[in-house]
Amino acid sequence: MTFSSFDTLDGTDLSFLRMVLEDVCAERALPLDGPEAADMARALVDWYLFGIRHPQQLKQMLSPLPAFLAS
Predict the structure, then answer these.
(1) 34 belongs to a structural domain
(2) Does residue 1 lie within any of the structural domains?
(3) Rounded distance between C-alpha atoms, residue 48 and residue 29, angstroms
(4) % helix, strand, coil for the chain, step of 5
């Protein structure tokens, strides 16, 4: 899923997103240089550009759907 946006990210935005990514990777015991982290980083940028700016909300957007909702 990619959102089309003409917004740009500055250094503050990138630092914020990096902090969220580091938190999620630490919570899930994932390496920052792994493919899962790269996928999450792309998703974080998409959700951020979509307008989700609160760290906890961004983390929730990275959580998988419960099994009963996915079926």
Answers:
(1) yes
(2) no
(3) 23
(4) 65, 0, 35
* pLDDT tens-digit series, residues 50-68: 999 999 999 999 987 554 4
In sequence order, what DSSP letters do the residues of 3-19 get, joined into one string? --------HHHHHHHHH
What is the domain range of residue 52?
11-70
Look up the pTM and report it. 0.81
In a domain, 22, yes or no: yes
- Please report whether residue 3 resides in a domain: no
Compute the distance between CA of residue 46 and CA of residue 29 in angstroms, rounded to an integer. Answer: 23
Is the Cβ–Cβ distance between 35 and 44 less than 8 Å? no
Do residues 30 and 37 lie in contact, with contact meaning Cβ atoms separated by under 8 Å? yes
Over range 15-23, report the average pLDDT.
97
As given in the structure block, the two tokens for residue 53 are: 């700016």
